[in-house]
Known about the structure:
The protein is α+β, with helices and mostly antiparallel strands and 486 residues long. 29% of the residues lie in helices and 21% in strands. Strands 1, 2, 9, 10, 11, 12, 19 and 20 form an 8-stranded mixed β-sheet that branches. Strands 13, 15, 16, 17 and 18 form a 5-stranded antiparallel β-sheet that branches. The chain has a 4-stranded mixed β-sheet with strand order 6-7-5-14. Helix 10 crosses helix 12. The radius of gyration is 23 Å and the shape is globular.
Amino acid sequence: MDSGAAGTLQDVVIVGAGVVGCAIAHELSRTGLRVALVERATEVGFGTSKANSGIIHGGHHASPDTLKGRLEWAGNQLWDGLCAELGFGFARVGELTVALAEDDEPALERLVRQAEEKGVPGVERWTREQVLAAEPALNPALVGAVHAPTTGVINPYEACFGLAESAVAGGVTLWTDCPVLALRPMRGPDDGWEVITPSATIATRAVVNAAGVAAGDIARMAGIEGVQLRPRKGEEYLLDKRLAGLVHRVIYPCPSPTSKGTLVIPTYDGTIMIGPTADLVDDPDDLTTSVSGADRILAAARRLVPGISERDVIAQFAGMRAVLDDEDFLIGPTEAPGFFNVAGIQSPGLTAAPAIARYVAALLGAAGFDTERVSAAQRVAPPVRFAHLDDAAQQALAADEPAHRRILCRCEMVTEGAVREAIARGAHTLDGLKFRTRAGMGRCQGGFCTDRCMAVLAAALDLPLTSVTKRGGDSWLVLDRSEPSS
Ligand SMILES: Cc1cc2nc3c(=O)[nH]c(=O)nc-3n(C[C@H](O)[C@H](O)[C@H](O)COP(=O)(O)OP(=O)(O)OC[C@H]3O[C@@H](n4cnc5c(N)ncnc54)[C@H](O)[C@@H]3O)c2cc1C
């Protein structure tokens, strides 16, 4: 997806291609503006946006008195249209917030009240009997729940890829492997910025800072000191597909003031995920998981769904929330002309992303940029999902295209054809393939398919195996130990 246009004056440079930056790029691609999206990672969505619970929140969790509360419900409603345009995995499965004790009653009442205030439809109290009839695997000691039909589950990385692909098809320039190192004001105070990266200096009228947990650093590059983000880590644990159908809705405990607690999540792809933790840490790059995190998550998940076992954990990962002191989003122009912050985008940032994008477009419009929509969003073909096809469709595809006759990932039924398509669409790392196709996400966690995927990747990109990386940078998987020839 990369292309270069560094010499051209941009109207807007977006720093950070997480779901928020990709959604803003997608929104602006429909205007006549010249837009560039600049990402330090090797592929889009490789920051927090690939490492979250993948829930489109029902819309009633965050208070309507907060910006994130307003954008949560607005964002929720935009995902159906985006999914139809871009074909990523999204299903409105609904959620239950479960009370395990009478003391939880006020929290349930607050959720119903917030839903009424925000106009979120269908949110209602369910009795213990109703809950257990719908979700028999839940703890029979529960006392009641709030049901919200508006909650969905999504493939967050697929959403990033779809948004970015569509944005690029609509004229946005995307630079990956391109960390912003500094920002320099151009001549006068209203003349814009030079965005300095190792490969190019990009001149632009405006900078949108969507750098996630690094948004404070980018703000400081523009001379803005007030954006103090604290990284709050969340560990997630993925359970084997053997448990598919254990729960049908997203299951929440009653929330605390800073956390929605440990959830049991039926992911779009049929696995169950449990998590996340919520621990303030010093290092925003510390994405380790821990024994203590696993213990806490398993204990909390078992309180909701007693049948969950640690033996079913097939993978774990961590993501980093970008938290401001007031726990709200900070989106708007700054005292530095032409510099806009989109900071503090912690949960529900995934849910809110499309609404954040529209909000940012409106702010740019108010600042004099012509953000009128002049074209429809570019549709992109959904990726091939061989495992989702019925037998006849699989046979037809394999008959037409020999690459679909070879299964590279047995757990997730990913064909060589699907892997080749993902490479053609921009995957150039093993994780890029994994997030686009699910190769390596199953029970064996890549034991069968890693070398097969690497071989296809190396051949397609004309690279030696020693240059193939897991996620870019120096994350090589194969080392060349041969003696240098004399
Ligand atoms: C464990 C966990 C669970 C969550 N669950 C949910 C959920 O279920 N639903 C929900 O709505 N939200 C959820 N969230 C929140 C959601 O994931 C985030 O709000 C969202 O992903 C933030 O997106 P972003 O684009 O702002 O950040 P990111 O995805 O982190 O993107 C920022 C990008 O900026 C790039 N960048 C940084 N510095 C530079 C630089 N100098 N130059 C260029 N690029 C740079 C980074 O590489 C990164 O790709 C969860 C978060 C966590 C951690």
